[in-house]
Amino acid sequence: PCLNGGVCQYNQSGYVCNCPSGFRGHNCEIDINECSSRPCHNRGEFCEVKIDNCHSNSCENGGTCIDYEDHLKCTCPIGFEGERCELDIDACLFNNISCAPGALCICPLGYTGIFCELDIDNCIGNQCSQYGFCQDHLHNYSCYCLPGYEGPFCEVEINECSSSPCKNGATCMDLSGHFSCHCTAGFKGKFCSFEVPCITDVIVPLYEKHVPFPSMNVKTDPVGMEEPVKRTLVASNATVLL
Predict the structure, then answer these.
(1) Quick one: which of 6, 57, 138, 187 could link to 17 by a disulfide (CB 3.0–4.6 Å)?
(2) Which long-range contacts (CB under 8 A, 24 or more apart) does 170-178 make?
(3) pLDDT digits (tens, 9 = 90+) for 119-149
(4) 126-147 in b/e burial notation, b at 16+ Cβ within 10 A?
């Protein structure tokens, strides 16, 4: 009566079935589900040890192996391709640049390196003067000048007095990036364009007086005179005896 390979043993009450592994029940009729306790790890039969797919270093020609759960992937250096980086390709054509015989890359202007991957800093060793700063471009560089300077290398100082900005006989002094006007007597302002008004009607007492004002009207106020006498001085820094 025992099923699934069970061994029957008779006794006083009847019989007993000794079931093989994986079965149970009075007649060994029940198939035990060994997976019900979930003994397996990592989706396998007792797979508690992780397999290193990159252990064999399957990538060739300096490729970098990336280990995934069930496979590997090779990241190839420039010049190689394929599942294991086993294919040698024309690296220069791969980078869309021309090559000389022997797979040496001839770089366009502004680039250098084995594969022309480096941008050349054209400002290294530039000729810009201390009055300018260098701006790097793809094939060359340019100098940007500080105020008051010009030229390809900012080597020429601009003469701000060349346009004669000072007026009314003033003297122009050229400075770095600007100018200064030294005005003649009677004028003021940045460009000496404003006339200074004259001081008139100066009261002079009846004794010797040194008058520092050029060309002005002078009133005398003698003692006992009801109306002042008006006189005109012509010479600069004149001495008046009244």
Answers:
(1) 6
(2) 175/148, 176/148, 177/146, 177/147, 177/148, 177/149, 178/147, 178/148
(3) 888 898 888 999 999 998 877 889 999 988 9
(4) bebbebbebeeeeeebbbebee
Residue 97 and residue 106 in contact, taking contact as beta carbons nearer than 8 Å: yes
Structure tokens given for 233 = 């001085």
The alpha carbon torsion through 207, 212, 214, 219 (nearest 10 deg) reads -30
Residues 180 and 173: beta-carbon distance below 8 Å: yes
Two tokens, residue 157: 């100082």
Query: Rounded to whole angstroms, how far apart are CA atoms 107 and 87?
Result: 24
Q: Are 169 and 184 in contact (CB under 8 A)?
A: yes
> Phi and psi of 83, rounded to 5°?
-60, -35
**Pick from 179, 229, 184, 235: nearest CA to 212:** 235
Q: What is the pLDDT of residues 78-93, one digit of tens each?
A: 778 888 888 887 655 5
**Domains and their CATH numbers in the chain:** 1-46 (2.10.25.10), 50-91 (2.10.25.10), 107-158 (2.10.25.10), 160-202 (2.10.25.10)
